[in-house]
Amino acid sequence: MTHITTKQAAEQWGISDRRVRKLCADNKIPGVIKKGRSYRIPSDTPRPADGRVKQNAPARFLKWNNDVIATIDDANTVTFTSPDYNKIVELYTRGATSWTGEQLGEFLSERVVSRDRRDIERILFRCGLSHYDVLQIAEITRGIHPKDLLWIAHSKEEKLDDIMTSVFDSVFHQRVDLVGDSLDTPEGYNIKRYGVYENHYGIYKQRISPLMTDVESEVAVYLLAERLGVPCCPAYRVDKDTVFSAFLYDFSKEYIVHFRRLFDGARSDNEYQNLISVRPQYKKDIARMILLDFITRQDDRHLSNIAIMMSAAGESFYPLYDNGRSLFYEDTEEMVRAAVSDPAKYATTFGYSGTYWDYIKEMVADGVPVGSLIDLTITRDEIADILQTAGFIGYRFDGALEWIVKTIEMIRALK
Predict the structure, then answer these.
(1) CA–CA separation, 193 vs 80, rounded Å?
(2) In this structure, are strands 78-80 and 67-72 parallel, antiparallel, or unpaired?
(3) Helix or strand or coil: residue 31?
(4) Could you say which of 103, 118, 289, 350 has the lowest number of CB atoms within 10 Å?
(5) Strand, coil or helix: what is 245?
């Protein structure tokens, strides 16, 4: 029997590579063979039915603020009346005049709480759900997300302000807690809630567990990025177990679009090439991100952790954010020692294949002037001060210091 890759299956079935990988991981495709992080699928396998699509749902409307841009029928098929309503909507529709129920499910899956959260059962209980279902969660939250003004209305007359108030009162206040823990939390295991700190709007993130240093890492990466000259969203230590990550855009005038929405169909295993293929104008910004992620041993950079900002003036590369899973935030002392002894071997991966160090060498071969993209004059004492300010102690302080010093030296040595 012949087998095909997830990319080939995605093209054959007309769905995303990400969706195919998820179906494989959930054992929804028979005969799949897993090799490392890759899957091989029998070539004659028919497209799996989409269990997320709920039949006989009432007709609804997809709105931008209070303007209808699409209708959603009882089979969850979306028909756009304004697929080119604005630049943000255009990025979602890509000129298409309709979505299947599966495409609607994929759109909503990026707006609701991730099934991978450690506290997902508690969240589902508070939502009155017995199992994870993207469409049901979106029904409860109306698909509202602070990154844009898209949402699902049950009638043409419903207004966003009224629904947002209703959702907040019935879901966030009563079913979560009195400080508004967010059901719209982006992917990740942190317990997050939206709020304000020192006149900035952003996200409060609690420590993942008492044994991890993700709070310290978030602050350290911001301070280090600031010193190296890499745009990064500010991160402030609020208390022992909480960090506040500020948003750097005006919600009334600007919108954030994750890079995941910029891809249409399958993409290669080379994430660096994927990124510059869809936004070549940000090649240096992408290179700076990869350099910083190598230096900080980032372990959670994915296409929903990279974004562009849209405004009346056009689009721009949005400063980096969600940097807590870095700098040995969960590693043992033994692991830290091994990594520091050989940074090239223990560099973290980005995408489905290739480490950050691999991509840096590729960038150099591609003529990218990596040595001039960040400020490599930072000293060992400056790095130590940053780690101490962020709250690093013990073996993680020692390991992070050595890792940062060594990786910067590696970059300096590149020709």
Answers:
(1) 32
(2) antiparallel
(3) coil
(4) 118
(5) strand
What is the identity of the amino acid at 111?
A: R
Q: Which residue type sits at 292?
A: L
Sequence-distant (≥ 6) Cβ neighbours of residue 406 within 8 angstroms:
340, 343
Pairing of strands 255-258, 150-153: unpaired
Tokens coding 387 = 């780690």
- Is the pLDDT at 179 greater than 70? The verdict is no
d(CA 256, CA 311): 9
Q: Which residue has the tokens 């990026």?
A: 110
**Residue 186 in this model has a pLDDT that exceeds 50:** no
Q: How far apart are CA 10 and CA 165, in angstroms?
A: 39
- Tens of pLDDT, residue by residue over 345-402, are 999 999 888 999 999 999 999 999 998 999 999 999 999 999 999 999 999 999 999 9
Counts of helices then strands in the chain (DSSP H, E): 17, 15
Query: If DSSP states are collapsed to H, E and C, what string results for 199-227?
Result: CEEEEEEECCCCCCCHHHHHHHHHHHHHH
Could you tell me how many residues make up the chain?
A: 415
Q: Distance between CA 32 and CA 339 in Å, rounded?
A: 34
d(CA 64, CA 256): 14
Radius of gyration of the chain (CA): 22
Both structure tokens of 364: 């150099």
Closest of 269, 65, 43, 250 to residue 149, by C-alpha: 65
- The rounded distance, in Å, linking the Cα atoms of 180 and 193 is 6
Look at phi and psi of residue 46 and say left if phi exceeds 0, alpha if psi is from -120 to 50, else beta: beta
Residue 135 near residue 105 (C-beta atoms within 8 A): yes
Please answer whether residues 39 and 33 qualify as being in contact, where contact means their C-beta atoms are separated by less than 8 angstroms.
Answer: yes
Percent of the chain with pLDDT over 70: 87
pLDDT at 118 over 70: no
Residue 363 CB partners (closer than 8 Å, separation 6+): 272, 287, 290, 370
| Cβ within 8 Å of residue 188, ≥6 positions away | 114, 117, 300, 322, 325
Residue range 160-180: average pLDDT? 54
Give the residue, 306 or 167, on which the prediction is more confident. 306
Whole-prediction pTM: 0.68
| Region of poorest pLDDT, from 4-8, 71-75, 195-199, 376-380 | 195-199
